[in-house]
UniProtKB/TrEMBL annotation:
Transmembrane region(s): 35-55, 80-106, 112-132, 144-164, 184-205, 217-241, 261-288, 300-319, 325-346
Keywords associated with the record: Membrane, Transmembrane, Transmembrane helix
Biological classification of the source: Bacteria, Bacillati, Bacillota, Bacilli, Bacillales
Protein's name according to its UniProt entry: Transporter
Classification via InterPro entries: YkvI-like
Domain of life: Bacteria
Length: 364
């Protein structure tokens, strides 16, 4: 086992899952905090699932030596489910691009007073220009925001928890399950893990297929990364619980709390969230377009611009509404992938036990 490898793998796992929706607090609010105390239990369950599935996906990637995202999906899901998942993930990429444009508009509106539609157009134009001009260096710089983003969000949520003016049992009375993205807290936790795994599984499996990591480091990295994600969800959830009476209808809960508790940090946090939104929008729009049209095709630029315009139209539904609609749908379909992982794990376990029994019988 290599300690540095374990930390690198865990950090990559956390980095893939943590994005603009996570940092804004909207995802945590809709899948956990609206359920009050039950959401606390849901966040613990989510952490356990993230740890187990992260462990399995990385180890399975090592077993099958997956070299590409498409191969990874088909390898773990089978021919027919793999084909369905491939299509689902493609359209999810488009959906997330729309959510990021809506999120960018929401940040610019909530923090700087820019009209939401204009804010979304600004993010769209920057995204398309970046892709057309191939400004990869800008993306690599923005990706460095992730550690600061985590520190800022955790600071805000911890401060809100420490300085709350009402007991958490009182705040629980403000729980609003009817506003949540799921019918109950347990299903909400499953959906949250499911749609995140559907988006990250190909990356984790491909990472596991690399030759530079040993199998033990991969497994421990997956466990540590998943446990870290669960701790982050729990911390942000408890922080928002302390302000639950004020968060109904707020598009960006963490930014709202920053303006209340640490006003000096709010503008910085908003810029960092915008950076994450922009980073995600670029990645999602590019990946979606390349799934439809080859990047070497003469039609690629036209397809890119058209995809961006369609994503903008979808963003008009609003950030919180899109988070509460697109992610749960992806979560339901992600159950196919979770089921495939469990079946694959069971088959591998049975195969190993059979091989061991055969070896024992031969030795006797």
């Amino acid at each position: 086992m290599n300690g540095k490898q374990v930390l690198t793998i865990a950090g990559a796992y956390v980095g893939v899952v943590v994005g603009a929706g996570f940092a804004s607090g909207q995802e945590i609010l809709q899948f956990f905090t609206y359920f009050g105390w039950w959401g606390t239990l849901g966040s613990v369950i989510a952490g356990l699932l993230f740890a187990w599935f992260g462990y399995q996906l990385l180890r399975l990637g090592s077993d099958v030596k997956a070299a590409s995202h498409k191969q990874a999906i088909h390898q773990i899901s089978g021919k027919y489910i793999g084909w369905i998942m491939d299509i689902v993930v493609t359209f999810f990429l488009f959906g997330v691009a729309g959510i990021m444009l809506a999120g960018g508009g929401a940040v610019l509106n909530q923090q700087f007073g820019v009209p939401v539609t204009l804010g979304s157009i600004i993010i769209l134009v920057l995204t398309i220009l970046t892709l057309l001009l191939k400004m990869e260096k800008m993306i690599s710089v923005i990706s460095l925001f992730t550690p600061f983003l985590l520190i800022a969000v955790l600071t805000i949520t911890l401060v809100s928890y420490l300085y709350m003016n009402k007991d958490l049992s009182v705040m629980n009375s403000f729980a609003s399950p009817e506003k949540a993205a799921s019918s109950n807290w347990f299903f909400g936790a499953l959906l949250y893990v499911s749609y995140n795994l559907a988006a990250t599984a190909p990356i984790l499996i491909t990472m596991g297929g690399g030759v530079s990591y040993n199998k033990k480091s991969l497994g421990l990295g997956g466990l540590l990364g998943g446990a870290t994600l669960g701790l982050l969800v729990l911390t942000i959830h408890l922080g928002m619980m302390s302000k639950l009476d004020q968060l109904a209808g707020v598009e960006l809960p963490t930014l709202f709390m920053a303006n209340q508790l640490l006003p000096w940090l709010a503008p910085i946090l908003s810029i960092v969230i915008l950076g994450m939104i922009f980073n995600t929008a670029v990645g999602m729009l590019y990946t979606f377009t390349t799934r439809v049209v080859s990047p070497t095709s003469a039609k690629f630029k036209f397809a890119l611009i058209l995809s961006g315009i369609l994503a903008y139209i979808s963003s008009l539904a609003g950030f919180s509404k899109l988070v509460g609609t697109v992610y749960p749908v992806m979560g339901y379909l992600g159950f196919l992938l979770m089921g495939a992982v469990v079946v694959t794990w069971f088959r591998v376990k049975v195969r190993k036990e059979t091989s061991m029994n055969v070896a024992v019988n031969q030795s006797n």
